[in-house]
């Protein structure tokens, strides 16, 4: 259990310990710590320990819950979209994702150039083109979902849930 040393009605120290083990002549300075964090949504709210309420036997931790600023929530949605695009591209980080997308764009250009020259794509190239188009559509879908989530007011606490991105 946690105990707090109180001087002049202010907590000056907390530690793990048993109040019954504090010597009798010092016990009047010590209180049992009561931690009752508020219920909040960590995805859209911050919680801060802001002080103490001191009673004869307890030091009760006080908390304040504040909404996360909208701009930061929008950035978190963008980050979530980026995380999903990185996974979709089979990349491990942002830079490798960009490289993969550039390589895909280059390959699409090569296939389009072949078609522009009235050459026929092989079966393997047709399959490759279909996969590249499906990937591009999936990325567009994630970007559209990101834009939709960013436009919601209020931004939902479950913005990172898969159902929001389907």
Keywords for this entry:
166 residues, alpha+beta, 5-stranded mixed beta sheet, 5 strands, 23% strand
SSE order: EEEEEHHHH
Low-confidence stretches: none
Look at the structure and give the mean pLDDT.
96
* Helix fraction bin: 40-55%
Strand order of the largest sheet: 2-1-3-5-4
Annotation field: number of helices? 4
Rg is: 28 Å
User: How large is the share of residues in beta strands?
Assistant: 15-25%
**Number of extended strands:** 5
What report would you give on this structure?
There is one protein chain. This protein has helices spanning 70-88, 94-116, 123-151, 162-165; strands spanning 2-7, 10-16, 30-34, 45-54, 58-67. The chain is an alpha+beta fold and 166 residues long. The chain has a 5-stranded mixed sheet with strand order 2-1-3-5-4, with no helix packed on it. A hairpin with a 2-residue loop joins strand 1 (2-7) and strand 2. The longest helix is centred in the last third of the chain and has 29 residues, at 123-151. The relative contact order is 0.11.
